[in-house]
Amino acid sequence: MSAIPVIDLAPLLSGGEAGHRTVAAEIGAACRGIGFFYVTGHGVPAALRQEVFATAERFFAASEADKESALYSPKSGNRGYIPMKGEALDPTKAPDLKEAFNVGLELAPDDPELVAGARFRAANRWPAMDGFRETMLAYFDAVWGLGRTLHRAFATDLGIAPDFFEDKLDRPLATLRLLHYPPRPAEMEEGQYGAGEHTDYGCVTLLATDTVGGLEVRTRDGEWLRAPVIADSYVCNIGDCLMRWTNDIYVSTPHRVVNPAGRERYSVAFFLDPNPDAVVECLPGCATPERPAKYPPIRGDDYLESRLNPTYAKSGLA
């Protein structure tokens, strides 16, 4: 597969058993092939998507002091503002030319995991901006629901119970991430990109973009494929955690973002990682005597920590 397929989710959402199986097979083929696919007919309201982008633009246009009042730190549970060049998704190259803001699962102040200071369980860091918290939480819930729907399709394609993932995604280590890429400067550090070559860490990523392109996907033969902008769609890709869960049947594909020339770029990504105590181990039917399980079982929080630490090492945020 050398192109990114476009899959209409409407039959999955309202087409009954036949529609569910048809769309699950289309998604499964993409996951085994290029590891990326677009979805349309996803049900996330257009007005909510527009409000998220407008709010992100207002936030990134604020003063550095205002943005840094909600600064990311190792104790923030992967939440808050990451300044320009604050991370390197390819740790072997120069820091990424972008800034970001991370929102995690919103927990009640008396939540036992929050009170106990569990890893990746922290209060969200909200900037002092009217409507920011409300908009982000509404959008978080919408794409979290969409991500769980996709996992029902994954399960159907893999031949396991459609609800297999449900109790592993009901308190997820999910991250909603606002991203701002400045225009490409006249000179960049060697090997520097808006987002360096990487694979995503979790199960599936749901990416909404503005009208400015920049995402590039590496095909199986090593060529870089520009991902076109498709209005009102999500670009979805498999992450390393689901690839591991499927014993490498599904593919987590390297990708990067090239800063546009003369234009800013905004995108909003939702990374759906499993619950911290979910055990990621070879799924039933994903191993055979000829293809035994490649990876030992691991907890969701242990896996995420192993992937995040190198990302922020260069910036001092780790």
Structural write-up:
- This protein is an alpha+beta fold and 318 residues long.
- It has one domain (6-312): B-lactam Antibiotic, Isopenicillin N Synthase, Chain (Jelly Rolls, Sandwich).
- Helix content is 29%, strand content 19%.
- Strand 8 and strand 9 form a beta hairpin.
- Helix 3 packs across helix 6.
- The longest helix is centred in the middle third of the chain and has 27 residues, at 132-158.
Mean pLDDT: 93
Q: What is the total tally of β strands? A: 14
CATH topology: Jelly Rolls
| Total number of helices | 8
CATH homologous group name: B-lactam Antibiotic, Isopenicillin N Synthase, Chain
> Structural class, judged by helices and strands?
alpha+beta
Radius of gyration computed on alpha carbons: 19 Å
Could you name the CATH class? Answer: Mainly Beta
What gross morphology would you assign?
globular
Strand order within the widest sheet?
1-2-10-7-12-5-4-3
Major sheet details: 8 strands, mixed
Low-confidence stretches: none
| Number of self-contained structural domains | 1
The H-and-E topology, N to C, reads as EHHEHHEEHHEEEEEEHEEEEH
Q: Approximately what portion of the residues adopt beta-strand conformation?
A: 15-25%
CATH architecture: Sandwich
| C-alpha termini separation | 37 Å
Helix content: 25-40%
Record the SSE blueprint.
Blueprint: E1 6-8, H1 10-14, H2 16-32, E2 36-40, H3 46-60, H4 64-68, E3 80-82, E4 99-104, H5 112-116, H6 132-158, E5 175-181, E6 195-198, E7 204-209, E8 215-218, E9 224-226, E10 234-238, H7 240-245, E11 255-257, E12 265-272, E13 279-280, E14 298-299, H8 300-312
Parallel strand pairs: 1-2
Antiparallel strand pairs: 2-10, 3-4, 4-5, 5-12, 6-11, 7-10, 7-12, 8-9, 8-11, 13-14
Helix pairs in contact: 2-6, 3-6
